[in-house]
Specification:
The chain is built from seven helices and six strands, in the order E-H-H-E-H-E-H-E-H-H-E-E-H. By secondary structure, the protein is of the alpha/beta class. It has a six-stranded parallel sheet with strand order 3-4-2-1-5-6, with helices on both faces. The structure holds 3-methylbut-3-enyl trihydrogen diphosphate (2 copies) and magnesium ion.
Length: 244
């Protein structure tokens, strides 16, 4: 584990988000800047993810949702898509024990159906192994899209026969992949793009957004702490005129 908090490198913050979403963007540009293939950037991105998971545990962030592969990322060249699937598979095998030992509860949001049975099993096994851990919930958004999630929720609601006049925010929340989790307080996007790219579009209605030009493989613990510091200084109004 990192020891920044223990060493006093990261002073406690006045408020910590209950749920942080991260759009982990910029792996391709990180690789290109080094004359490497895009997949080398994705590998560096996975390495960085390990660091950020540890930092989240240390800094007391209880829920992280990590955007790893969108429903639109299938549009990439076949070799890149296959590389990303392989990387997910390898990382699950390599990292799951350490994550488990560090108290991380792994979850998945998105649609697993298009993935191979082998990969689906690896994901289910990792989820089953870590299901009782409670230091950090790490939601991996893989083949996730906010619109697909809402379509699925509406389909489930209609199928379940809930009368139209009973549909409210709580009913919709309960039918999303994130049902039972708090909305994200903070959504971080690396690599300087000012867009949501179909990530947590319902849940992020009142999230604070933080965009940094730093590319994902370079977004280290100091950068993560900086994002939390900026969040702690934000004045959230939720449509009202002052903070509670
Ligand atoms: C983010 O990095 C990872 C995924 C979307 C899988 P990118 O691959 O989008 O990197 P850039 O945006 O091309 O630099
Ligand atoms: C968003 O990044 C998806 C992930 C980080 C997994 P993209 O690189 O796919 O987003 P766009 O295409 O720039 O909007
Ligand atoms: Mg990108």
């Amino acid at each position: 584990m990192i020891s920044g908090v223990v060493q006093g490198k990261y002073p406690p913050l006045p408020k910590t988000p209950a749920h942080v979403g991260i759009i982990m963007d910029g792996n391709g540009r990180w690789a290109r800047a080094r004359g490497k293939p895009r997949l080398a950037g994705h590998r560096a991105g996975v390495e960085n993810l390990r660091r950020i998971l540890r930092a989240a545990v240390e800094l007391g962030v209880p829920v992280l949702t990590l955007y790893a592969f969108s429903t639109e990322n299938w549009r990439r060249p076949e070799t890149e898509v296959q590389g990303l699937l392989r990387l997910l598979s390898e990382s699950l095998v390599k990292e799951v024990d350490e994550l488990h030992n560090n108290g991380v509860q792994l979850r998945h949001i998105g649609d697993l159906a298009p993935l191979s049975i082998d990969l689906q099993e690896k994901i289910h096994n990792a989820i089953a192994l870590t299901r009782n851990n409670n230091r950090l919930i790490a939601n991996i958004a893989f083949n996730y899209g906010g619109r697909a999630e809402l379509i699925r929720a509406v389909q489930e609601i209609v199928r379940s026969g809930i009368p139209a006049e009973e549909i409210d925010v709580a009913v919709i929340n309960a039918h999303l992949y994130t049902g039972g989790l708090p909305d994200p307080d903070l959504i971080i996007r690396t690599s300087g793009e000012f867009r949501v790219s179909n990530f947590l579009i319902w849940q992020g209605a009142y999230a604070e957004y933080y965009v940094t030009p730093v590319l994902w493989p370079d977004f280290d613990q100091d950068e993560f702490y900086r994002a939390l510091q900026v969040f702690a200084g934000r004045n959230r109004r939720y449509g009202g005129i002052h903070e509670d």
